[in-house]
Amino acid sequence: MITRRTALRAGVAATSIVGTGGMLLPVVNAATAGPRTTAAELDAAGITKFAQKMPLAPVLQPYLNTGSTSYYRMTLKEATKEIVPGLKTPLRTFNGSFPGPVIKAESGRRVVIKQTNSLAVPTSIHLHGAHVPQDSDGSPMDLIAAGGGTKTYTYPNTQPHANLWFHDHAHHMESENVFRGMTGTYLLTDNIERRLGLPSGQYDVPVSLRDARFLESGELIYQMGDFMKRNVILANGKSWPFFEVAARKYRFRLTNTSNQRFFGLRLADDSELVQIGTDGGLLPTPHRTNVVAISPGERADVVIDFSRYPVGTVIELHNNEIAPFESADVVGKVLQFRVTRTAQDNSVVPERLRTLPPLGEASVTRHFDMRMDEAPGGSAYINDKTYDMDRIDTEIAYGATEIWTVKNVNQIAPHNFHMHLVQFRVLERNGQPVTSGPETGLKDTVPLKPNETVKLQATFTGYRGTYVYHCHLFDHGAMGMMANMRIS
């Protein structure tokens, strides 16, 4: 069982809790978890914004293709990159790239990846949102040994198209490993998606969003729970970059890879964003809005039509989700678009994107409370229990359809809820049926602000085994807000 003593040994000792504008933040003892340095911290307000071009994540190519399977190799390794202009930052990466690589997969075609861990810490690679057997899920204790250990993951890709991502999930290490760079993108497509005529090729752009904190030397400062100090916003591994676009439609696959930060994304002129998808792929119909919200781990698939702007226009992407102590000129800015040219555009956004299967009849209902102590030295719980890797918290019959009511019982702390193995449907939020918007699609991660409740429905099929469900604010999971479910 994870206790305060074992958490201390892992370097995650919470010594106080600070409420800040809707966020509950475990502040750790610098002697056990903070940076061991007297170097000065970088002032985020002094970083020049929109001075760097946003890079595109490299697309990883298989080393072998057979009739049914694509085979890849990745090495988990240290690398140094320029994130803030003029500074070099040591990172933990997949294949030395930051942002991590993109894998493009197809439904019905297997992907096999051999991961070699050359880092000095153990890892466990989780393909977030994927329907996979237990031995390839990247569970918290299914570790790849440091210093050259290997593990081969098999992804059957039996699910429909989805915007997935992969990241470290090693118990008590995932928060730091992800913060130091261990994320990548996995785009699963199928004929349903391909035939729609959505923006594609160079106009289909994965973007990983997150925050960070640096020393003046460029080194990352990792300190669990220091949300209020992680105030440098990154897009595809660069601080406040710009991206040159043509005056036409673009598709942006947005992933929130932050440990704790929520984003509320809008264009500076409040013009239309068309959200076409979420975690589990396309929505039934486009959601036309001016703000797209994504909590840590969530994805949003968004089309922006730049044809409404003349060549020469500069437009910023802003973040509405900021705490009272934060500066809108710092964390309220994300990315700058520069309309530099015209281009032909034959892409469309159909008014009907997909048809989801009808909801089955649920045979089991369950209730889960998410809570963390709003007092110094606290832990975090699901149904008043901290995570015990040897305890089965929920027994599920294979093939069962269940309804889970999940509540954030905290008064200050936000959470979100992620289930491994399955995509789910959001039936209700705060007692109201979900009938429109981004939560009408397939989801695997759902946000819960203080006192919020969601009702979810999932069918547990495909694979038997033990999987976890947890808060995807990594620091909350490390404090104990995680549990095991066994499908048998």
Can you characterise this structure?
This protein has 488 residues and is mainly beta. The protein has 3 domains: 4-33 and 356-487, Immunoglobulin-like (Sandwich); 64-192, Cupredoxins -  blue copper proteins (Immunoglobulin-like); 201-341, Cupredoxins -  blue copper proteins (Immunoglobulin-like), CATH 2.60.40. Helices cover 5% and strands 42% of the residues. It is built from 5 helices and 34 strands. The chain has helices at 4-9, 30-33, 174-179, 191-194, 474-478; strands at 14-20, 23-28, 64-65, 69-81, 89-94, 102-106, 110-117, 125-128, 149-155, 162-168, 183-189, 204-212, 232-235, 238-239, 242-246, 249-256, 263-267, 273-278, 281-289, 292-294, 299-305, 314-319, 333-341, 364-372, 380-382, 394-396, 401-408, 415-419, 425-429, 432-433, 445-448, 453-459, 465-471, 482-487. The protein has a 7-stranded mixed beta sheet with strand order 14-13-12-16-21-18-19, with no helix packed on it. Strands 25-24-27-32-29-30 form a 6-stranded mixed beta sheet. Strands 3, 4, 5, 7 and 9 form a 5-stranded mixed beta sheet that branches. It is globular, with a radius of gyration of 21 Å. It starts with a helix and ends with a strand. Mean pLDDT is 92; it is low at 1-37.
